[in-house]
Amino acid sequence: MPGKGRFTLIGAVMLLSVAGGMLLAHRTRFGTNVFALGGGEATARMMGVPIARTTILIYAFSGFMAGLAGIVFAIYTAAGYPLATVGVELNAIAAVVIGGTLLSGGSGTVLGTLFGVLTMGLIQTYIVFDGTLSSWWTKIVIGMLLFLFIVLQKGLLTIGAARRTG
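^ Putative sugar ABC transport system, permease protein YjfF, sequence as received from the core. Prediction below:
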């Protein structure tokens, strides 16, 4: 078990990243601009959001967080193999969607994403420790959950639009 029940540097970095992300997303003008841009570029432009500047800052922050994740992963594995995480893109998208972020944009929380990641970890741990299922079942279950949540989001958006129009 990683950490063996101790609070480690990796845990501290993760908690600080979540807290920093929550503050940045929900308590700053930059976070408001990101949500506005996620809701639609034309709408954000009408609201006075600096589109180019916000987009560049989003990419810069994303690069910083990716670099931080790479450093943490290198510390965790005590290796620097760059192809170790190839194929986890589906897991990342699924965790964000399970956490409540809309794929259509403009809505979501960092805490929700954390709960999505924890849910994904719980599912993967159960499948691996069950022993009777192949590890490929994690990809199948994650894909099914992602599909389910996408259909659920689409249904909720359709119901919301129907209520607004009539």
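The chain has a mean pLDDT of 88.
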